[in-house]
Amino acid sequence: MGCTTILVGKKVSYDGSTLVARTEDSQNGDFTPKKMTFVRRQDQPKHYKSVLSSFEIDLPETPMAYSSVPDALGKDGIWGEAGVNEENVGMSATETITTNARVLGADPLVTSGIGEEDMLTLVLPYIHSAKEGVLRLGQILSQYGTYESNGVAFSDANEIWWLETIGGHHWIARRVPDDAYVTNPNQLGIDHFEFNNPDEYLCSDDLSEFINKHCLDLTYSNEHFNPRYAFGSHSDKDRHYNTPRAWVMQKFLNPEIEQDPRSFAIPWCQKPYRKVTIEDIKYVLSSHYQDTIFDPYGPEGDKVSQKSFRPIGINRTSQTSILQIRSDRPKEIAAIQWIAYGAMPFNTIVPFFTQVTDFPEYFTNTNQDVNTNNFYWMNRLIAAIADSHYLHHNARIEDYQEKTMGQGHYMLHQVEDAYANGQKLNLTEQNQVMSDYIQVETQALLNTILFDASNLMTNRFSQSD
Length: 465
Hints:
Blueprint: E1 2-8, E2 18-25, E3 37-39, E4 47-49, E5 56-58, E6 66-68, E7 82-84, E8 90-96, H1 101-106, H2 119-123, H3 130-144, E9 150-155, E10 160-166, E11 170-175, E12 181-184, E13 201-203, H4 207-213, H5 227-231, H6 236-253, E14 269-270, H7 278-285, E15 317-325, E16 335-341, E17 350-353, H8 361-364, H9 375-386, H10 390-420, H11 427-455
Helix pairs in contact: 9-11, 10-11
């Protein structure tokens, strides 16, 4: 698996909201169809059993409803990935991360434990704050263990927390600074940790003893503890698959800072040179190293450099969610889940209110067969057709993105203005109006892309009779 995460603190987001975003990328050679789902209280299982491991557990009796983006086919379990619950607490799970042999030797992974398949379902319906999410997931990890290394984000209107697993049972978490953003590709990322500051840092109860017993601390005595040194990886694969993604995101949000794309010292968090928008997040999560020698679509570089680094906007992205939670809006409209399907350079991202009774069918009815009746397969079709002549189609795709995202902001403003004037709208209906608009615009884009691509086919000939 491979994902890319960006987290934006409330003081550097454009509107004071907390922003949590992550691409969910399928394994190489696999494309996982996704759908958006609203899980009602009565639909949450009382007893949970994993598909990919032997883990099972009884769940609390009083779940909250929540949004999620599960696998459409369900053959490997739920994989809820990203959502917001009734208390406007968000969760994004997970960013697959790396570790090292020292950690795995000290605390091996647990084949009967939990994984990405399970985490959202086990945690999100039962938490009332981002910090509470860290503590609930941490307790489950400590007790039952995990069979993979993962990073998980929790958010509410006031703060964002990032948790990283360490081996089978251990974990650390850090509160994202309000005045900073975080970039996290598929690596253990936290590079600063304080053991006696629970307002900003949390960890499994015995982590300090665990580190000392197994000689994991690689920092000198006069330096702060660096979890990345102790628990993370420094492999040749990281230099090409992972760190360049952090580099290119920070290059966009801090163009004044010079960094090496292969460096293991790229900071986990930075203060941006200006506030960060939804459009910025969409752009960096669509990145293929534009205007560098590493862009597979660009005119710079050569066949070697253009294939050197793994793009963020990769072909096998299944879905991307931006969880936006505002502190200055009524509770009903404070949380927005922006949703995109498929390869990010070719798609748009759509805002939906989460305090609803259901989501539009165009975003929920994904099935195994390719068709044009849902947003997931429409995006897959557009990307596959446009890829071969990317530069020819790019202007039309950018127009579509700007127009549809503009309509998304307009829809949000209209609802906010109505609430400010004492008018409470049916948010399920407002989401449907947005979906209907997106369906029309996406169909029009497919029509254009298919027509243009047909005229660019290899067997074309200028004479028409």
